[in-house]
Amino acid sequence: MIEQGLLSTRQSAAYLLILCFVVFTVSGILYTGRAIWQWPVGKTIGYLRWERGFVLAAVVLTVLGLVLLEDLLRAAGDTVIAKLGLATYLLAAAVVMVAEATFLNTRQFVYPQIIVYIVLAFLAQAAFGVSMLRTGLLAGWVGWATILWNLGWLVLLPLVSPRDLYYPVLHHTAPLLIGIMLLLKR
Fold first, then answer.
1. How far apart are CA 18 and CA 98, in angstroms?
2. HEC-encoded secondary structure of 53-85
3. How does DSSP assign 79-129, residue by residue?
4. 180 with 25: CB under 8 angstroms?
5. Could you report the per-residue pLDDT of 53-98, keeping only the tens digit for each?
6. Does an H or E element contain 177, and which?
7. What residues contact 54, with CB distance under 8 A and at least 6 apart?
């Protein structure tokens, strides 16, 4: 009975973590259409609301997926690190929601908020990688990949793109990997 509950939680976490990437991809396409390809419809406020709304929906799905992942990691023996990672990501999500809402109102990001989100989100997901290594919930390489991806970008972004550090896709890639690996786990 307990194993069935964990299987259900595992699958739900997997689907949410994969879905956050899919939903973010929609926002990425909308952003590309507006900012790079200069679609005329991209100049409307309605378009911008949809674009940024998909960014926010992806963040919410990530939070929900990480809540279930934390539950799995706790059941696997981690009582501290994943919980701290979850709390940190919740703070990051709150900050980016305010930043995105401000952008919708003013059409300008409050960049210090974006920086706070970036740092907190990368550190939170790295903590989940550490927790996966400690518990063995997934193969060790998944934990290492999660840690290296998040800490690597935290260090590299200021070097390779010092004027713009906000690439939200980077915060949905590790959850995608974790979600896929949770689905493949037998």
1. 24
2. HHHHHHHHHHHHHHHHHHHHHHHCCCCCHHHHH
3. SSHHHHHHHHHHHHHHHHHHHHHHHHHHSS--HHHHHHHHHHHHHHHHHHH
4. no
5. 999 999 999 999 999 999 999 999 999 999 999 999 999 999 999 9
6. helix 170-184
7. 23, 24, 26, 27, 30
The DSSP H or E segment spanning 145 is: helix 140-160
Distances (CA, A) of 120 to 29, 34, 39, 138, 163: 25, 28, 33, 23, 19
The label of the residue with tokens 């949905």 reads 172
3-state SS assignment for residue 137: coil
Average pLDDT score over residue span 120-125: 98
> Measured between alpha carbons, how far is 91 from 99 in angstroms, rounded to an integer?
12
